[in-house]
Write a structure and sequence with these properties.
The chain has 277 residues and is of the alpha/beta class. The chain contains eight helices and eight strands, in the order ααβααβαββββαααββ. The chain is globular and about 60 Å long.
Amino acid sequence: MLPHALLASILPLLALASDRYCRCRPSEVCWPSDSQWAALNASIDGNLHAVRPIGAACHAETIDASACDAVTANSNSSLWRSGQPGAVQWQNWEARPAKEESCYIGSSAKIPCGQGRVSLFSAAVQKGEHIEATVRFAKKHDVRLAIKNTGHCYLGRSSAPESLQIATHALQSIEFVDDFFPTRCGKKSESSGSAVTIGAGVQLKRLYTAVAERNLTVVAGLSHTVGAAGGYVQGGGHSPLGTWKGLAADNVLQFEVVTAEVRGPMSAPLPLQISNW
């Protein structure tokens, strides 16, 4: 039997746990109306899309054989999956076992195609203002957000049930400078040397090609379809060059991060500066 003092300390915690906070779901009255979703779509220049799992092409009531064949042919392509709002790199994160929802390519067409963990809507953002508008919408309506760059996350954070996805894949800007100076630092610091500014959707293969053309090197990973400015660098960024120059995160000079705060227009879409060696 627990001492009374210990019981007194445990019971409030149990009460707190039973009153935990949940995001709004489509079955609840708080879920945005069609007109509110349309307003979000207009605010991001028509880049909001309803999403279905990629396997849906092979599970429809009337199957389009050519569409199913095309999806099946590309389903093992990491590059193709990185650009699909309804796919991630690890198929288990597309399914939702607790609700018995899945839509696997290759499974029987008679099996219903459930949404799984695939987001219901995707904001295929083209610039920083699109991200701001989407984050503010999710905050206002209490909708769960999922951020998908290329979908490589082993922990499944690129997808989430009944969520609104921000897809950063289209942010493909790459800009080189010989002398980089951090912005918004009060005093103008000394130059950090040459650097490359990349958009959030730039994948390693494209980055490596761009720096190689200039006889430069960046500290990054081996998987060419990983996005350099996403969870890779935020998780540290392991690299074959790590023993020489440290992690990718050690070589970042500056992040520009989009938040839901009301402020002026973005000057650039999620740039990330990485020093060159």
